[in-house]
Amino acid sequence: MRNPSRRTLINLAVAGACAWLAMPGHAQQAANQAATETAAPADANAAGPQAAATPGPAPSPSPATAAAIDTVVTVSGSRIASRGFTQPTPTTTLSSADLEKSAKPNLFNAIAELPALQGSTGRTTSTNSTSSGIQGLSSLSLRGLGPIRTLTLLDGQRVVGANVTGVTDVSQFPQLLIKRVDVVTGGASASYGSDAVGGVVNFITDRKFEGFKAKVEGGQTTYGDDRNGSLQAAWGRAFMDDKLHVVVSGEYGREKGVPSPGFGEVGANGRDWYKNPAFEVRPLGQTNDGKPQYRYIEHAQQFQYAKYGLITNGPLQGTAFGDNGQPYQFQYGSNGKPNYAGGVSNCVAPFCVGGDLSGSVGAGTTLGMDLTRKVAYTRVGLDLDADNSLFFSANYGQVASHFSPNPGAAKQGNLDIQCENPFLPASIKAACAANNISSFKYGTANAIFPENINVHPTRTQQRFVAGAEGRFNAFGKDWNYNAYAQHGGNDTDIMVYDMTLNSRYLAAIDAVRLANGGIACRNPAAVASGCKPLNIIGNVPADPAAMAYISPANGPQQHSRQTQQVASFNLNGEPFSSWAGPVAIATGAEWRKEEYTVRGDPYGNGVSANSPNSAEYPADPLLNSTVGNNWYAGNYHNAEGAYSVKEAYLELNLPMLKSAAWGDANLNLAGRRTRYSTSGYVNSWKAGANWKTGVDGLMLRAVTSQDVRAPNLSELFAAPVVVNAAVNHQGTSVQIQQRTIGNTQLRPEIARNTVLGVVLSQPSWAPGFSASIDYFDIKVDDVISALSAQQEVDLCAAGNQEICGAMVLNTPGSNFVTVQAFNLASLRNKGFDIEAAYRTGLTALGLPGRLTLRALATHTISFITDSGVVGTIPTEGAGVNLGNTPDWKLLATQTWDHDRISLTLSERWVSKGVYSNEFIECQSNCPVSTVIHPTIFDNKMKGAFYVDIGGSYKYSKNLTAFFKIDNVANVDPVAAPQTNLSYGINPALYDVLGRTYRAGVRYDF
């Protein structure tokens, strides 16, 4: 028996874990229920659960062995490390060779293309938002369940979140050292704890890399923008007779993005596909005429404002202003004529079709953010003896992004302009007098602002991990262990520039003529605080002093500090054998603490004498000093919160059958007991089985599990988030503040995850061929979710008085809708994963080289969301191409390798879909539209098919050049209409940047 003192420590740890499991409820859970765990294939180089694989054959992969194909589906993903063990949950593995062939500047983009990954966020998503907090965040989502239900690990270890939702930023990972990425498409809460409802994405680094390697890469789109480049280098060496291993890497990357083209129906840098798409929505009360309520339109024109100003009500309605403030008759689309009460004939509020589109703002959203990555990583491992080692790793990652959510700051006909305003032309003053009016309503895109709003989020991570791993002998058996402690911190700073203060803007545009002939702000309090009059009547240069007053240099700011501390211990071994083989066990315990603080600027949060930066944001009588929310957008608020977790798990592998005729079968069981400081105890479990049948190459697998996701820091303790939005209320577009707040009474989500699969792995009659098909069924109850602002408004209009209490819609300038999360909803996602691979030499055909074919597809049969709110119905998300879950998503590759040359052709396909499955499509004789079943003229949304091509040439043993062209045919994105002119595309499903060229060199010595 080796290391008796260490054995004593291990035995004490095991006894502690067992005692933990024996607490009330633990023993029954461990004995009667099983748990799902799906991480990565056992690997001696992988930390965490994979760190101590015993000698012998690796877990059997599917559909093809790793030797046969670089990218395979492996039947693994367990904390069990045992000879011959086959895990029932499928795992798709991307090798370093696969990642190299993708030639992406960020590994996130390569992984997000996998069909099972749906709803991931990247630098092309959320670019129209100032306050969502996820801008520039590269986070992965499985099954369309969202990043918060996908657990992303580094070497099997948790990583501090880059956002208060707890999701990680893949851009902060050390990417050059990644040797494999395992994507587990099944629930894994029983082994890894909270968040693994949709599955696990595990990044495995090369922990004992020796030598030096580097990569230099650059590229741009066919439009000459989004120029990008990266430089990565890694070095590793062994010292002290191979006992000390040191690995160091550094990375710098820049993707410059696609700048905003500004105003009008024009795409950036020659992109001619943008056509102001929108939904024209008639009021419900008018849908008894047999015509549909919704209609897709292009060239949508907001008739409540113009580029440089438009009178939107009263006898002067339709008067617009151009150069030097000169009035002219606004050109309404749809042959519209103003009715002088705010409406326009032949138009459906808030849109006409065509006409003067120069003031449109939808195309002005940044298509792709300007993003910079800086990552440094080191790992030191010291072998104490042949069986045990210590390790330490440190990671620094900074990701800074920059984008513009929209040009100007549109005011949709909600401004009051006095007829005595000195900036008005004499002809308008005379018209006011002739029509006996003293003021009128006015809308403007504020195109006179010299700069667009620009948002700069920066996330900086520091992460330190120390641990030990190895094996020992106890009771005549070898046991593998690994333990680690982590401290991680992530600082997020959001700086917003060229943002206006609402009350100062209103004071500045309300100008009067002084007795001495000068022009000043009307409000004496505003004048005392520095107000300078601003002329918004026509295309005139904005006074710099006025702009400095309404848009101070110190714009909206938010600083967040999030920390994560983890202590984890895992143990596995084979204590005894049955007639069918060794019985394997894995057990462990983990403690984790998550906490955060967030501080907003005083104008967003509320000015007070105790504000730490009140000198930079002096008190102003025009500003709300208590509630804050003074900015046009980006109103950040203070908050803080923390919770802790302690948990223990037990996993068993029980061989059940071993027969030459009937094959091999095993039963995999696991259970986990978790205590959250905020919501108490919760259980997760798994029960699964594999049967390698007696039929050549055929295996059957099945697993069912209960998985959990506890409410995260944001959901529990969220700082109030206030964003500007527009809702359709009684046929009129109403500008609102959408106020989102937290809820400390939330409970964990509980999911039931079932997978049934058939695998054909290289039968003798088809060497080199493998395939698998898996049916999945995921049901999540007590889902933490909130209704959208528009849903709340619609429910209020339908008579739900409880919802009505969360909004004010009849007070211009003070309208709001409060959005809060509750355990109301449920989700159910059902579908199939299909995967096939074939590799063969071409000599039999008289051709050189090797051919590798591979295809992965996910078919979503149904994705039902039930809000749980009275007056709503379950909605079907499968095939809704405005969302994240198309009916089909496919990725196929064909690779030819020969000596120094490699060529790869790839196809990406998203099937056609609908705008909403709740729409009733009709052109005439339509039923009366309802809130839950609106009618629509055409409910079809196109799919997309993209072809990519890449290749490499090996100049020498150490130097390889490569190239990649994505979206070779430069396929345009499909229009994604909304009920306002926001964005008009869906980057979650479609390529929005266009054809992209990249090339580079790799050096490996």
Largest sheet: 22 strands, antiparallel, barrel
Q: Report, as a whole number of angstroms, the end-to-end distance.
A: 42 Å
What global shape is seen?
A: globular
Mean pLDDT: 88
Helical amount: under 10%
Query: What is the count of DSSP helices, taking H or I runs of 4+ residues?
Result: 13
Percentage of residues in strands: 35-45%
Structural class based on helices, strands and sheet pairing: mainly beta
Give start-end ranges of low-pLDDT stretches. 1-76
- Beta-strand segment tally: 45
Radius of gyration: 30 Å
In short:
This protein is mostly beta strands. Helix content is 9%, strand content 42%.
Tags for this entry?
1005 residues, mainly beta
Topology diagram in text:
Layout: H1 4-21, H2 26-32, E1 72-75, E2 90-95, H3 96-102, H4 107-112, E3 150-154, E4 178-184, H5 189-192, E5 199-205, E6 211-221, E7 228-239, E8 244-255, E9 278-281, E10 294-297, E11 300-302, E12 310-311, E13 319-321, E14 327-329, E15 351-353, E16 370-383, E17 388-402, E18 411-418, H6 426-434, E19 439-444, E20 454-474, E21 477-497, H7 502-509, E22 511-513, E23 519-521, H8 524-528, H9 544-550, E24 557-578, E25 581-600, H10 602-605, E26 639-659, E27 663-676, E28 680-692, E29 698-709, H11 713-717, E30 721-729, E31 732-741, E32 749-761, E33 769-785, H12 789-797, H13 801-804, E34 807-808, E35 816-820, E36 822-841, E37 850-866, E38 875-876, E39 888-898, E40 901-910, E41 920-921, E42 935-936, E43 944-954, E44 959-966, E45 996-1004
Parallel strand pairs: 3-5, 31-35, 41-42
Antiparallel strand pairs: 1-2, 2-4, 4-5, 6-7, 6-45, 7-8, 8-16, 9-10, 11-15, 12-19, 13-14, 16-17, 17-20, 18-19, 20-21, 21-24, 22-23, 24-25, 25-26, 26-27, 27-28, 28-29, 29-32, 30-31, 32-33, 33-36, 34-35, 36-37, 37-38, 37-39, 39-40, 40-43, 43-44, 44-45
